Amino acid sequence: MILISCAVSTRVLACTAPTPPTMPDVDSAVLAEMVKTQNAVKKFLAAGDNYLDCEKNDTAHNQMVDLMHDVGEDFNQLIKDFKAKNKK
Questions:
Q1: Global pTM?
Q2: What is the C-alpha separation between 47 and 69, in angstroms, rounded?
Q3: How many angstroms separate the CA atoms of 28 and 35, rounded?
Q4: Which ranges of 19-57 would DSSP assign to H, the alpha helix?
Q5: How far is CA 75 from CA 7, 47, 56, in A?
Q6: Domain extent for 31
């Protein structure tokens, strides 16, 4: 009985939508902060993939796909802006 409840608890946790990372302000960001954000984005996308694997509701699934896409686009734009700002 305990083993079954642990399995159910793990599944419930796995089907919790991850929270997207906060993007730094490109005007004040330093390289270390950008690397930290990159790692947070990778972690979010991996958690999003896990969520998509277990989420069976089409609307929730599509919303997560859209959110993952938006986070990826936002981060890519942040990197472009950061590189442009820090050209030497």
A1: 0.81
A2: 14
A3: 14
A4: 31-54
A5: 35, 16, 28
A6: 2-85
Query: Structurally, how many domains does the chain consist of?
Result: 1
Query: Tens-of-pLDDT digits for all 88 residues of the chain?
Result: 454 444 444 445 558 999 999 999 999 999 999 999 999 999 999 999 999 999 999 999 999 999 999 999 999 999 999 999 998 6
Token pair listed for 33: 């902060």
Residue 16: DSSP 8-state? S
Query: Which residue is associated with the tokens 């959110």?
Result: 67
Residue 34's CB is within 10 A of a number of other CB atoms, namely 19
CA–CA–CA angle 56, 63, 24 (5° rounding): 130
